[in-house]
Amino acid sequence: MSVLDSRSLAISDDGLGIVLHPGPYKRLVYHVLGFPLGILSFLGVVIGVSLGLALSVLFVGIAILAGTVGFLRCLTIVEARLAATFLDETIQSPWKLDTSPSEPISHVRNACTDEQTWRACAFALVRLPVGAIQFTVAVTLTALSLALVTAPLHYDGVQIFQFGPWWHLGSLLEALLAVPVGVLLWAFSLHVFELLATGMERFARTLLTPVE
């Protein structure tokens, strides 16, 4: 059984105890960072490749493509460090290109024939929609849980919550009843963050681990 599987089983056995674990909160930070990192990754690759190809007849285009390759390598290093910091998982060191050629043309040619370049490029492009999912899930569940847990604090006799046609928080009693519901939802949310982190770890490991 892998370390990841052992972690998932241990947490799922804890039930509400997961609320006291620091791990899921680190995963939450990782998911919130997913969207801005996805935007940066996607724009870096799209703009770099587009400009590089458009200006490839000029030396500046080749330099832009070489810079894009360097950006991809930096991206893999950042993702590996994020996985170590927030997911408590180690992803093998990013791939190393043959940097012996000093000319940008040779550098780009070597990168284009390296499978790991294309794997890192695919990761950067997919990072945006995946990061958007991470961010949406993390922010939505966190905001809803926090709103329910703190309902009595900002309840003022006004109907401020409406969850479908079946539950309206229109009284102080209902606001108090929302507190344990919010705690349960938060515990469930932390389990969701863990499962989402497991998927992200496997996704990053598959595409970013250097090909032997």
- Compressed to H and E, one letter per element, the order equals HHHHHEEH
Coarse morphology = elongated
Fraction of helical residues? over 70%
Radius of gyration: 23 Å
Structural class: mainly alpha
Strand percent estimate: under 5%
Q: How does this structure look, described?
A:
The chain is an all-alpha fold and 212 residues long. Helix content is 72%, strand content 3%. It contains six helices and two strands; from the N terminus they run αααααββα. It has a two-stranded antiparallel ribbon with strand order 1-2. Helix 2 runs antiparallel to helix 3 and helix 3 crosses helix 4.
Describe the secondary structure blueprint for this structure.
Blueprint: H1 3-14, H2 23-54, H3 59-86, H4 104-112, H5 115-149, E1 161-163, E2 167-169, H6 172-208
Antiparallel strand pairs: 1-2
Helix pairs in contact: 1-6, 2-3, 2-5, 2-6, 3-4, 3-5, 5-6
